Amino acid sequence: MFVPFFRKLRCALILAMAGVLGGCSKAVLLSPSGDVAWQLRDIILVSTGLMLLIIVPVIAATLWFAWRYRESNTDAPYSPDWDHSTILELLIWAAPLLIIIALSALTWVSTHQLDPYRPLARLDAQRPIPADTRPLEVQVVALDWKWLFLYPEQGIATVNELAAPVDRPIEFKITSSTVMNSFFIPALAGQIYAMPGMQTRLHAVINHPGVYDGFSANYSGAGFSQMRFKFHGLSQAEFDQWVQAGKASGNTLDRAAYLRLEQPSVATPVQRYGAVDPDLYGAIVDRCVEPGSRCMRDMAEAICRAPRQAALEAPPPGPARPM
């Protein structure tokens, strides 16, 4: 009776997996192209393997017990007075405890090694970063509903297009213009949140040339599903050509242009800017792009300065009254 059911269940699972995998060219999380994402993949595999050490025996034991002690098996031993086994208690408690200890150690080590604020120490498992290597700085701004990338060293900016040389460390500085968002390139590294008035960081490196998907991993409104971009892993020569193409666009991203760009839009095409206001990103983080607006940094300094100024302007205390 159960054989046709399990055959149908197996067919349904196969069709479901085919439908899921048919929507993407490959499981990018299990086959990334950046060293940070590769280390994250190893953590996923090790964690899954450790958990399977419990899951597989429990499932196997469940099936074995169901078969062994089925009603029709009159040869199975019947022990109504049995209630304790020291060996079973040790197995039941020791195995999960050891796995939890192993997962805790893995989490502790990987959390420090893969801290997104921590500069990279290697290009991949076989190559350390050369001593004279300078990271490529990319300033990321999450807009509604598009991504703005500023390259302060190159003096250019792009919308919904990102590029970096292969085997060169990248230092992302990430913020948002309005609501909380999440910057995620699965082939490169893990997701990092973008928040207005704050700056988060991410260090990563791409090890293989190609074109990779990037998107928002945090729901942020009506245009969230189309808040996507392409990340290009290029050779140094190709990256230089890409930068020159941006400079040749003739567009300038000043504060007025940014305020126009900041307006909500969906499925925004790629845009390039050959010149960028060098103080624009700082003004975005400090929430003072609009003319006449006061920067958060200035307001914080004024708040901190007020008690000191009040103390300096206060009259000196009078003489103590006799008791």
From TrEMBL:
Residue intervals of the Cytochrome oxidase subunit II transmembrane region profile domain: 21-118
One Pfam family per UniProt: COX2
Cytochrome oxidase subunit II copper A binding domain mapped to chain residues: 133-245
Keywords: Cell membrane, Electron transport, Lipoprotein, Membrane, Oxidoreductase, Palmitate, Respiratory chain, Signal, Transmembrane, Transmembrane helix, Transport
PROSITE patterns membership: COX2_CUA (PS50857), COX2_TM (PS50999), PROKAR_LIPOPROTEIN (PS51257)
Transport found in the keyword field: yes
Topology in the lipid bilayer: Multi-pass membrane protein
Localization annotation: Cell membrane; Periplasm
Record-stated family: Belongs to the cytochrome c oxidase subunit 2 family.
CDD domains for the chain: CuRO_UO_II
Chain segments annotated as transmembrane: 43-67, 87-109
Name the UniProt record assigns to this protein: Ubiquinol oxidase subunit 2
Species of provenance: Bordetella petrii
UniProt cross-references to SUPFAM superfamilies, sorted A to Z: Cupredoxins (SSF49503), Cytochrome c oxidase subunit II-like, transmembrane region (SSF81464)
